[in-house]
Amino acid sequence: MISYGKQEIEALALIEPVNTNKIRIDADAYIRRAHELRSQYFTEKLSNLYQATVGKYLRNREIQLAKNALYNMSERELKDIGITRNEIDRAVEGRKEMEASQKKGFWTTLATKFMEAQTSRAAYVHLMSMNSRELADIGLTRSEIEAAVKGHRNYRANDNLERPSNTNDHRKAG
Question: CA-based angle 62:63:66, to the nearest 5?
């Protein structure tokens, strides 16, 4: 085995230098890309600033002009377009129905859940008290009652959801 000392290794490195960096970095391309990204960033920031100030002002102005135009219409004209005078603000601003200003509290939610459970229980008891013929009239079997009360009723493969083709509905008495 050959052992090289520090002096021999330095001598070998001077004879044949090793190029460990074989990847050429295009610094100009990275600088151009950095300039593009910086330009995009500042353009986006200026656009957001414009929308937050001037854009918001212009939108509010358009909304106010639309409200004024609707308020100047007669009741008949408003009825023709399907709104009342009370609904003008909501219609122009695009808001949905008036939402409750407060969320339901714990006790209100608990009472609602209790009432739903009581209603569901009463429906179950009522359906269980029916005989098989009455259940068949409404399209249920006794085994489907619980699913129907919970709202999970799935149609069976043999349910005839379409009208039969062999009816004489197309014939008229004449």
Answer: 85
**Mean of pLDDT values over 120-131:** 90
Please say whether the beta carbons of 118 and 110 come within 8 A: no
Alpha carbon distance 105, 123 (integer Å): 27
Please name the residue that has the structure tokens 């656009």: 47
Q: Which residues contact 4 (CB under 8 A, 6 or more apart)?
A: 12
SS3 call for 163: coil
pTM for this predicted structure? 0.35
Residue type (1 letter), 116: E
Taking only Cα atoms into account, the Rg of the chain, rounded to an integer number of angstroms, comes to 39
Largest CA distance in the chain: 122
Q: What is the pLDDT of residue 101?
A: 47
Query: Exposed (0-12), middle (13-18) or buried (19+): which is 73, by Cβ within 10 Å?
Result: middle
Answer whether residue 149 shows pLDDT above 60. Answer: yes
CB of 115 within 8 A of CB of 107? no
